[in-house]
User: Fold these one by one.
Assistant:
Number 1:
Amino acid sequence: MHLAETHRYSLYLILLAFVIVLLASYTSLKLARRIADSSPWHQKLWITSSATTLSVGIWSMHFIAILACPYPAVKSFDIATLFTSLAIAVIGSIIGFIVMHFATFEFPKFLLGGTFMGLSISGMHFLSMSALNQAEIHYSPIPFILSILIAILVSITTLYLSTYTKQKVLSSGFVISLALTGMHYIGVSAGKMTYPDRSMLAEHYPVDMDAYVLALLIAFGTIIFLSFNLFYSMKIDQKLLEQFALKASLLDTSMDSIMVFNSRGWIIECNSAASAAFGYTRKQTLTLTMFDFLFPFDRNGEAAAALFQQLSRQDAALLGKRVEMAAYRADRSEFPAEITITGFQFKGKRMFAATIRDLTNQKRSVSAS
């Protein structure tokens, strides 16, 4: 038996493995951005796509990185074990994402989901290492445990970033890829491998494909898979932009004033009719709250607090109902208004839309008659 050499790695295959996992991390985070904004059925689809994309990329990186190692002399793998390791990574990642996005318990979901996902990735790593035929592997405890801890930490970070919409996808993907690559080589360094003489190995496994050819085939298949998912995500982006542009056009052509505000009352969007009706510019409107338009003289804040409490508890007597009340322009002049407030979810946050109709002319007509 010969002790496997652990130097003279193939730099080209190492770089190829890193590029694969970088592309997988980037694509997975891009797909994860769709989860919060989708319907429940589509959320499951995006979770499955994001988790599968990441786990397939990690598995491919791991397999190519194994080919970059100088051992054993003739690389021959047990196919069933390899695909079992891939299945473990995919299933574990999907479960981790499901726990993160659907679990209802109080314990931090990204910790539990990330731990399960990290253990599955570690299991994939060491199981696929055992797929090398005729190789005996003995692991050193410290790097063995360290690689598992890194896998768990990276998984926790990935799940957290999958719900954090403000992160920069490219830089986040780069950090995740570096950590996953480091996890792989720490895991490899934990193993002391011995294998038979080349002549014995070649006799039992005579078919030997060049490592570069095999790596390129795996990389090509993975890139096709990732490119399909990324292309689909970009098509969805384009469709959403078109829908957003259409909705923006409908808002701007509406005769009624429409304002979108968050749970604290801050205006985050308005249409042209709102700016014209209240006498503010759009820029000025986005620095105000709904309470500035409805209760500008509410010194003690009681009226604003009452409305805020109704919004917080999603009071059915308010939401979706037409309510007549006074509204105020920029010059603090009062006018009668019909206000309808509706609530909706946007990127996991509670938002509200107020449709405000000026009743001044209507009131005058009634008085005249």
Number 2:
Amino acid sequence: MDLRLPENGPAEPFLGAADLLETESRIDLPVEVHVRDDPDERTWAGHYEDRHVLNISRQAATSAMGRELALHELSHMARYEQNHPSHHQSTDEAIFLALAGKRVERRKLAHVHQLANHMKDIYADDITLSVAPGAKLVTFLESRLADAVADRPPVVPTGWQLATPGSDPEITAVNAGFALALVERHDLVDDDHRIYDLAHAAADDAPGVSVERFADAFRSLSDDPTESEYRKALVDMTREYVGGAD
């Protein structure tokens, strides 16, 4: 992998993540790492014709999750280069197909974009969790879900976003479904793990959103869907979340 490290940041998290990824996958385009000084900078991957860019705050890069966050974003890059439908399907197109003729609250439209990002994360983390242990990710998911349920959204830059400003109960319920799906898809927890209690609390706070249905939908995403199959899954989940919009 052609990994281009910045002069103003640590190297180990990115080198370690690259070594892990290359045991199971590959990235052909160069990867530029940009370390931002803003502690609230979200960790994200940008894709261009001649390179990928991994954006991360210094705080995140030097945290205990630094390698895992970097690996997560590298996994997104690998999926992008594989032309996986999850990383090329237009979310706006799916929203149009799902909601044509309906009036939908602005907040719910924003939530649909987060739902689509969760679907991308499922496929990225199928790679991530094939090359790295999941203990840190489970702790992360549990902590973020606990913060959201308690209405105390954390100010932490992450690759997996599980909280929104104000911890809206409806999207928190979707996030709970995503968290359950990810840990169950990879057999990361036992049935009595605390994350189930947190998901139950999230479900109680949003009776109009089925945590169980979203968990099942995320968990059962096909490993290798066609473009049509993936688009249908995204459209179906969008309709499930928006529900009876007029």
Number 3:
Amino acid sequence: MTRTDPRDLAGTGLSEAWVDELVERTLAEDLTGGPPLPGAPDLAVSFDVTSAATVPAAQPGTADLVARADGVVAGLPVAARVFTRLAPGAVLTAGAADGDRVHRGDVLLTVRGPVRALLAAERSALNIASRASGIATLTRAWVDAVDGTGAVVLDTRKTTPGLRPLEKYAVRCGGGSNKRMGLYDVAMVKDNHVAAAGSVAAAVAAVRERAPKVPVQVEIDLPEQALEAVGAGADFLLLDNMTPAQLREVVALVGGRVELEATGGLTLAVAREVAATGVDYLSVGGLTHSAPILDLALDLRAG
């Protein structure tokens, strides 16, 4: 499946304003001083010294964004906007869509425009797409590992500062789901909150009074804490660093009454065993904090 317009953000959940701001910040990191590039006279820092020295100003060209490894692609519409920020008249053709499984050598996006602008945009576009695609690729490995168990793979808040919307979108491209976007959409009662409030029941009650419409999750690390948390009014439980045997015990105690999420110390090697205990979710910080990039490159063609 490909988009008619490779820059189209429909269905990504990413806002136009946020993507524009990310593109601007990313380009500003790479371009430092000098005359403006074609199409970007208002970008305060817009000079690629190597391309300006080696490429004639009016030279057109075509470049392919190519996969150098097998994986799952994500972030292509954002990468496309990097190119068109510096070359507004560039013609883009999609070769793949976010969420697609791709193979080494596949052309993901083709861009035709001024060569100077394409080369100036190259690294910024690749950094975005490679990072997002790496997260999507790792997520898909986890999703495949638990396929058929009914368990859902979730991300966490362990994201790169400033890139959370992109990285959580990449998780969705890989077939995973987002847990919470921040500290505002789910109340997570952890041991420090319990210590401050005096008890699990007091902590949950305080959240209910202050934010009655916000779902409440309680973190537990022993099966015997499950009944207390459910009795206190938790909507779902975070089962931290429990063994498969402990997870099965919690499922037997409160499964079906609240949703159960396993987390902590999870690896691909044990993912299916954990999912088979009957928990509803596996939350994996490594999806975003430890995903290697997917190797992508930009190949310039003559003409």
Number 4:
Amino acid sequence: MTLLEARDLRVEFVSRGRRARAVDGVNLSVAEGEIVALVGESGCGKTTLARTLLGLERPVSGSVRYGGTPLAYSSRALKAYRREVQLVLQDPTGALNPRHTVYEAVAEGPRIHRLPDEGERVASALSRAGLRPPERFFGRHPHELSGGQRQRVVIAGALALEPRVLVADEPVASLDASVRGEILALLLRLRAELGLSALVVTHDLGLAWNIADRVAVMYLGRIVESGPVEHVLTAPSHPYTRALLSVLPDSPAPVVLGGEPPDATRVPPGCRFHPRCQVLASGAAAAAGVDGLCVSRPLPVLPSSPGAHVACHHAEATMLTGRADDRS
């Protein structure tokens, strides 16, 4: 069952007369017990989309749905919703008040929601997050903990509310390589033990490969490719996905993208990736007869259904050619 969903979501910001289309038509879903990775370079709209799914930003159109019901934006409705859908921030040092003890940090959520058995909730959450015995950490302050322990405290703070979905924004970006695997293993264990769903926002495709069931690749405010993680990361169809994958250590050669970095105030006509597209620049799009479409015809918003989807004129033409060859 789909638990958290964005339907044709659009979020805009206006500054000095310029309108930035930060999220420009996104369909995205997270099912019960599923981990979805949202990947893309900085500035593509990942964090804005995550904030909108949490109710921290309001869309100009489209909707956020939880359990099939559109999100309401009254204070009471948002408070109830945020007990079910919890945020795990990128920087555990910035997320924790340096004056609060670990106990106070984890107990903050249950106190806001006036939940019973505070001490038991805090101890259970810390234990599930891998800080055992939990009582040993109650009186400690953030500066007395390692980076990995601080991230576990942040996760425990979310778990204390017994949520059904975690939205994790770059959850291991600030951690040492030796600790990253431990936090990823923790998220997988929480999914197995508690049935938690998660949306993991990251620029790291290696992380997506290790933790996600599905991956959605975002560029300039829109999902340009999505599907099962094995399909997207082993046989990417979109040239932007191939460029992202090319920087991984085992890639044969990096793809250097030309043109300007994406600017949400100036979305180009046609395919929004075409000014930087290596397929168009190499002449492969022209050989397939779609170069005119690339620069003039916009691509439709991809659906949120579980299958593999791509928004690329060249990929569509290639698939059609392959089907014709199969029939012949």
